[in-house]
Amino acid sequence: MTSRILTPRPGVLDIDAYVGGESKVAGVERIIKLSSNEGAFGPSPMALEAMRDAASVMHRYPDGSSSALRAAIAERFGLDADRIVCGAGSDELISLLTYSYAGPGDEVLYSQHGFLMYPIAAKAAGATPVKAAETDLRTDVDNLLAAVTDRTRIVFIANPNNPTGTYLPSSEVKRLRDGLPENVLLVLDAAYAEFVARDDYSPGTELVDAGQNTAMTRTFSKIFAMGGLRVGWGYFPAEIADVMNRVRGPFNVSSAGQAAGVASMRDVPFQDRARAHNLEWVAKTESALQGMGLKTTASVGNFVLARFANADRALACDTFLRSKGIIVRRMASYGLADCLRVSIGAADDMEAFLDATRAFMEGQA
Ligand SMILES: *Cc1c(COP(=O)(O)O)cnc(C)c1O
User: Fold this and answer.
1) Which among 233, 249, 267 is the end of a domain?
2) Residue 46 in contact with residue 240, Cβ under 8 Å?
3) Do 192 and 233 share a domain, yes or no?
4) Helix runs in the chain, H state only
5) How far is the centre of ligand 1, averaged over its atoms, from the C-alpha of 113 (Å)?
6) Residue range(s) defining the domain that contains residue 291
7) Which of 189, 299, 300, 303 to mutate to test the pocket of ligand 1 (most atoms within 8 A of CB)?
8) Among 22-36, 174-188, 230-244, 257-271, which stretch is predicted with the lowest mean pLDDT?
9) Which among 221, 248, 253, 302 is the best mutation to test ligand 1's pocket, defined by most ligand atoms within 8 Å of the CB?
10) How many domains does the chain divide into?
11) Atom of ligand 1 nearest to the CA of 218
């Protein structure tokens, strides 16, 4: 028996640690990794060059306020740089928001198949995570509003949501904000915003600017393909930006991350190429999977959720794909054991995934 000398705060030992997408299969050399929604093309060449330049000054501490990075983000998206705060991935910002605004006795509300970092951050802060049911794998504003109590402090929405790929139009997000008590923080996690090409979608900057208690988080890990560097950012009302700057680490974004982030943000043609490739391959992948008898969700992210007849079939397909070196994501931890999520990768990798899935569905496995 192990003796525990120190006892962490209540809630901490209730956390199921986050498990990232796998990248290895024993005995298989050539792996096709489609498990973590990483960029299909690798990083922008301009980001690589900026990082090489930054390498020679790695003995210096980074700019603690990420000024150049905030300026590049503000310019690209037309935002107020003073209300942007950068983080070591948006995961860090999600945690800091949670610790800052919720604690023991408080509730943190999120959608049934929402991103797993929300309940993890809530429990780490000693707060109670509360789920609101979805309708057809889509965030349901009425169910969220019905779940609000006088203990609710934060509501997290991933828009678009991972792993479902569905999104709420801006009118629905506004209806949610309008229906929440003013003292409840609404966090719009728009990690996949840059991929969305729908007229009725907004990542929520207008709600942040309206001065209500709304925050938006974004990331360099997805369309900008910099997941390994850990760079994210958030856009906040001035009071919340001030809180984030007090609680964050003084040098929370590395100099390499800042340099690569600035270069990536300015490489707009790279972003346009990535978005076009994604739109093409989400459509092709969903229609091919439907042709095999699987259900899909009309994803607007850089991934597709495929629904099988049952959990056994999903698991068997995953096992078959792995035997071919193709790694997708199992979804049991999200309560979707009958689904697999496949990230959009390079064209050849998608063809290989579709060929293998077709072989499985046609009973050749
Ligand atoms: C990938 C992802 C993030 C981004 O995480 P980082 O810490 O920025 O790499 C945030 N939210 C959702 C919903 C995601 O899928």
Assistant:
1) 267
2) no
3) yes
4) 45-55, 67-77, 89-101, 117-124, 141-146, 170-179, 205-209, 238-247, 255-266, 268-291, 311-323, 347-361
5) 14
6) 12-42+269-361
7) 189
8) 22-36
9) 221
10) 2
11) 8
Residues 147-194 pLDDT 10s: 999 999 999 999 999 999 999 999 999 999 999 999 999 999 999 999
1 is a domain residue: no
Q: Is residue 6 part of a domain?
A: no
Using DSSP's 3-state secondary structure scheme, residue 329 falls into: strand
Q: Six-digit token pair at 12?
A: 């901490």
Does residue 211 share a domain with residue 170? yes
Q: If you take atom 12 of ligand 1, which residue's CA is the nearest one?
A: 191
CA-nearest residue, atom 10 of ligand 1: 191
**pLDDT per position as a tens digit, 276-331:** 999 999 999 999 999 999 999 999 999 999 999 999 999 999 999 999 999 999 99
In a domain, 2, yes or no: no
Residue 271, phi then psi, degrees to nearest 5: -65, -40
User: What is the token pair recorded at 167?
Assistant: 């999104």
Residue 160 Cβ < 6 Å to ligand 1: no
Q: Does 96 reside within a domain?
A: yes
Q: How confident is the model at residue 208 (pLDDT cuts 50, 70, 90)?
A: very high
Is residue 87 lining ligand 1, measured as CB closer than 6 Å?
no
Q: Is there a single domain that holds both residue 258 and residue 286? A: no
Mean pLDDT over each residue of the chain, to the nearest integer:
95
345 and 256, same structural domain?
no
Q: CA–CA separation, 153 vs 127, rounded Å? A: 9
**Domain's final residue, options 221, 245, 267:** 267
Residue 201 clears pLDDT 60, i.e. is over it: yes
